[in-house]
Amino acid sequence: MTDRPHLQPLLDDAVVVLDAPTQVWSDRDGDVGGAPIHGVYHGDVRHIATIGLEVRDTALEAIACSAPVPQRALFTGLLRGLDDAAADPKVRLDRDRTVEAGRLTETLRVSSHLMHEVTAELTVRIRPDFTPLQLVKAGVARSEEWSWDGERCRAGQASFTLRAVDAAVSIDGREMLLAWRVTVPPRGEVEVTWSVDLDDPTLVVTSSPRTAGVRPVPTGADPRAARWLERACADLDALRLALPDQPDEAFYAAGAPWFFTLFGRDSIWAARLALAADRDIAASTLRVLARLQGTVHDPGTAEAPGKIAHELRSAELSLPGEGVLLPPLYYGTVDATPLWICLLADARAAGLTITELKDLEPALRAAVTWMIEHGDASGSGFIDYADESGHGLANQGWKDSGDSIQWRDGRLAEGPIALSEVQGYAYEAAVRGAALLDELGAAGGDDLRSWAADLRRRFREAYWVTTPEGRYPAIALDAHGAAVDTLTSNIGHLIGTGLLDPDEERACAELLVGETMSSGYGVRTMSTEASGYWPLSYHGGSVWTHDTAIAVHGMLRAGLTDHAGRIAAQLLDLAEGFDYRVPELHSGEPRVDGGRPVPYPAACRPQAWSAAAAVVCAEALR
After folding, report:
1. Which residue in 398, 427, 440, 527 has its CB near the most CB atoms, within 10 A?
2. Which domain does 69 fall in, by range?
3. Is the distance from CB of 205 to CB of 242 less than 8 angstroms?
4. pTM: predicted TM-score of the whole model, two decimal places
């Protein structure tokens, strides 16, 4: 019998309480440790692997779990071993969990409706862990050695300080025990509280001040849209991060649990999709990414002059079994640089001041230079990518899994790869970047428009394919300049960029709402007619909320409001099916009347660009 490979933890049944960069994952009864994802995380380290609650002489029978805001969950259970013999339960325990950035607090409340006193002995068992997040993601079980000085638990530079008022604290093997003996008065209640303050000086991100609220966005007649928007904006607020030396310059962390950090593409798209609700974060995201903009050529980090970063971590990121080893600051993204220019243009249209624009002019010029001089890595004439390091990401668009770029017959495309949507981003960035240069009274706009016009002409000659499903832009060009002919959701990203003619945009929109691409809960990443289609394939048939929302965003800009409304309505149904917190992705199988959306069980949630989809969908539905 062979050993089974390490498996990534499943997430769909777990409860998360979060305030970036801190998160706690548990069962619905509040216990931590029953599944591989469970734990108390701060930044890129799981500080605590298990938290168990025991009450002497009785089981704790869970009956309810609610999470009114991202930072709080309330777990309710019965203590029938301490109760009388009547049918109605009269003794209960509420476990009130709150998370602030760097802190977990739990209040345990024992309530009784009995006419006599009740004595309860409570024990909280905590197992410190200090496992790097990347190992948890890879399904590798490993705990670091830790020390305890009576107040602080430490492993390496990471640590937490424990506070447990009136508790007897002891060490039992590799666990910390907190014990209370409480007496509950007749028809009364008693509370005890414990907390941990988490610290890791190696963190490269920090919390950012929470917003007082976002601008109201009209949601139309369907009350579900308002519910989705309210929860989504709360999640976005909980995902705000900043760099430690500029805590007021916020950006959205990509998502929980794996991506509590800065991702160029994700943070840009989240800011773009949420722009109608939060204009300020677009400007701060632009400034944060401009500070990290590439200045030199470095194959090891994929850095190049003017290039916008992909990912920021506090240490190297190793993905066991995948042959991937990413440096702490990694630039392996082909689309973040043109998208940065597009966000700059969006922000200016939404009220970014001319002074702020002027301050970002050097970064704008550097990004334009990257597109024109460095973006074409292979000499194909289009912006493309290839991993030069041998240990970076094989695919460097948003569909970054190893099998995401396929022919209709299932063969993998050979790189370097020139993705179709990246050409759309680049065209939009060039045209709108030229307008920004004109507004600044700076030179270069005409040359940029000429470059864009040439890109548009060459795209039409190289990318369009005809298959039994119709005529549409290929997902990419391969190493030989051949158009990879699978019908995918990538065509939705082209709509509204200006790269396509209005008739071409409408034709693409029709394909996206057609039977092979529309699941009933959003747009599939790959057509059901492709040989590689599978509804639970990460990028080969699943549905990603942000991907579908980008199509809605483009359709609104292109004037295809009917198509935008139809797809946005599907996402609203999806949101209802997931209690208004849409995950990173879900299964692309066809919708069944009376059924519910099927989860992709390892999908992250909340995810910033999935939450931001609520804002653009509210615009499409009003």
Report:
1. 398
2. 15-199
3. yes
4. 0.96
